[in-house]
Design goal:
Layout lengths: L1 H14 L2 H19 L10 H10 L4 E8 L2 E7 L4 H16 L3 E8 L2 E8 L2
Helix pairs in contact: 2-4
């Protein structure tokens, strides 16, 4: 984990914040394919289901998930490569809302704070 996070951090220093966005978008597309294939019948957006999914795959610990209107706020502690976790959450959100979603995320001390909402 530290190696991947270090590589992303170094690339961001040289190329800018778009590096995390590229990782996020790549993972979103990759995971969306899995949601249409092997994970098609899985319901992963419930609190318990998402917590179990993330923890069993070593992606982090879901500590908060709040739906406020159409805005979903998620906090994942000890996030394994935060842009990858964020990309998966974005793919799940777009599947649930059946449309593209806007997002905002921050990473502080390996804690991912992610806000999603259906795009306009």
């Amino acid at each position: 984990t530290q190696g991947l996070n270090t590589i992303i951090r170094e690339l961001e220093r040289e190329l800018g914040p778009m590096v995390s966005e590229l990782f996020l978008e790549f993972e979103k597309e990759n995971f969306a394919g899995k949601l249409e294939g092997p994970l098609r019948d899985k319901h992963l957006m419930g609190d318990v289901e998402l917590r179990r999914y993330l923890s069993l795959r070593g992606l982090g610990l879901l500590t908060e998930m709040k739906l406020e209107g159409t805005r979903l706020n998620v906090v994942v502690e000890n996030a394994f490569v935060a842009p990858i976790v964020a990309g998966r959450l974005l793919a799940l959100c777009e599947r649930v809302f059946d449309r593209s979603c806007a997002y905002d995320f921050q990473v502080e001390e390996h804690t991912l704070s992610f806000t999603l909402h259906p795009g306009a």
